[in-house]
Specification:
- With 173 residues, the chain is an alpha/beta fold.
- The protein is built from 5 helices and 7 strands, in the order βββααββαβαβα.
- It has a single domain, classed as Leucine Aminopeptidase, subunit E, domain 1.
- A hairpin with an 8-residue loop joins strand 1 and strand 2.
- The longest helix is centred in the middle third of the chain and has 21 residues.
- The radius of gyration is 15 Å and the shape is globular.
- The two termini are 19 Å apart.
Length: 173
């Protein structure tokens, strides 16, 4: 099931499905500072195999919003961009929001620097990290659309929503 908005043409797709199986050059792995496996991160590590665990051990630590790239190993994507997803702080939503926006910018910058033409994002920080889904979707779309307007790479970006309610947040104007 895929929903495209004509304003974005072929460059942006919003779909419901499995991030790991996307036919793209890179996927984004939302993780914690230690690159530990939890939630989607755990599934990505399991699918990519032991070589990914070794590679993330070499990275050791990510500051919140920082992004690093590894090979994709045993998944269809050639690369995985790991970003330390922020935790929602309802008492300081401005800082949390800025950190989430920076996650997207850092992932996009890293993709462009590595000449990645297609990139798939999950809904970053909406699971265990606690961001309100509508808030996170607005930040994600704002950052990606701004980046697409000013950069030629990555050429194609896919938001892969696991749940129907996530998908609906990305489709709401």
């Amino acid at each position: 099931m895929s929903k495209e908005n004509q304003r974005w043409g072929d460059r942006l797709t919003i779909t419901q499905g499995d991030l790991i199986s996307q036919q793209v050059e890179a996927i984004v792995n939302p993780t914690d500072n230690n690159l530990r496996s939890y939630g989607l991160c755990s599934k990505i590590h399991h699918a990519a195999g032991e070589a990914l665990r070794d590679a993330t051990r070499q990275i050791e630590w990510l500051e919140t919003s920082q992004a690093k790239i590894t090979k994709g190993y045993q998944i269809p994507a050639s690369y995985i961009i790991h970003t330390c997803a922020p935790v929602w702080d309802k008492t300081n939503s401005q800082i949390s929001s800025k950190q989430l926006a920076k996650c997207y910018r850092n992932c996009l910058r890293l993709a462009a620097e590595n000449q990645i033409h297609s990139l798939a994002f999950p809904c970053i920080s909406t699971g265990l990290r606690g961001f309100p889904k509508d808030w996170a979707a607005k930040i994600a779309l704002t950052e990606v659309l701004t980046f697409l307007q000013n950069n030629s790479l990555p050429w194609r970006i896919i938001f892969v929503c696991r749940e129907q309610d996530d998908l609906e947040q990305y489709q709401t104007p």
